[in-house]
Specification:
Layout (H helix, E strand, L loop, with lengths): L2 E4 L6 H12 L2 E4 H10 L3 H12 L5 H14 L6 E4 L5 H13 L6 E6 L2 H9 L1 E4 L5 E3 L19 E2 L6 H15 L1 H8 L3 E5 L4 H11 L3
Parallel strand pairs: 1-3, 1-4, 2-3, 4-8
Antiparallel strand pairs: 5-6, 5-7
Helix pairs in contact: 2-3, 4-5, 6-7
The protein binds adenosine monophosphate (AMP).
The site of adenosine monophosphate has 17 residues, from α2 and α3.
């Protein structure tokens, strides 16, 4: 099974992708995570994209298509993928279609997660992530426990993304509407689009995702 989670920043794509990894053995391909890893390991590409990411602009299609191509190449034919944060432009969507075709794979569904802008801004501005297992916290809705330990793995370090601030977030949203939202029409036209309400408890949204991808 190969699926795309499509939605604005903060819609919960990463959270739902992690559940699908745990419960269905799919492999999460998050271009945002790959780019942050390149940035923190100080590769030449990582340094090149750092400012673009901090502003909330998109890095070039060439870079992200290259990253995704390498990952598809690296996994065996039996692997199912969840594309999280990719594609984000029509050129990326076309490239993904070609990459999947080339490897004899098909796209099963594109799950669009809808969340209104003010809720998105509130979500990302309080966001923190366990540096070890990726569990996501929020200052208001799910604070880091008082003992400072991750509920999932007990680790005590948490990270906050450089672009999880209001001005960057507003730009990321504008970029989403300008560059990425045309993909909703693109996948609607080819019959792959399933739109769900992304607001609500994680388990509620999880049930909607499951229904959208066929149980
Ligand atoms: P994300 O973690 O998906 O919110 O991505 C964080 C940032 O990485 C974005 O704001 C972009 O600067 C960059 N990025 C991630 N995925 C892509 C992509 N598919 N195309 C272009 N830029 C991307």
């Amino acid at each position: 099974m190969n699926i795309i989670l499509l939605g604005p920043p903060g819609a919960g794509k990463g959270t739902q992708a992690r559940t699908l990894v745990e419960e269905r053995g799919l492999v999460q391909l998050s271009t945002g995570d790959m780019l942050r890893a390149a940035k923190s390991s100080g590769t030449e590409m990582g340094n090149r994209v750092a400012d673009v990411m901090a502003r909330g602009d998109l890095v070039t299609d060439e870079i992200v298509i290259g990253l995704i191509g390498e990952q598809i190449e690296a996994h065996g034919a039996g692997t199912g993928f969840i594309f999280d944060g990719f594609p984000r432009t029509l050129a990326q969507a076309d490239a993904l279609t070609e990459l999947l075709d080339k490897h004899g794979r098909t796209l099963d569904a594109v799950v669009e997660m809808k969340v209104d802008d003010e809720a998105l801004i509130a979500r990302v501005t309080g966001r923190a992530t366990c540096a070890n297992c990726g569990e996501v916290y929020h200052d208001v809705t799910k604070p880091i426990p008082a003992d400072g330990k991750c509920v999932k793995c007990g680790h005590t370090e948490f990270t906050r993304r450089a672009d999880d601030n209001e001005s960057s977030m507003r730009n990321r949203l504008m970029t989403y509407y300008r560059e990425t939202s045309p993909l909703i029409g693109y996948y609607y036209a080819n019959g792959k689009l399933r739109s769900i309400d992304g607001l609500g408890a994680i388990d509620e949204v999880k049930a909607r995702v499951a229904e959208a991808i066929g149980g």
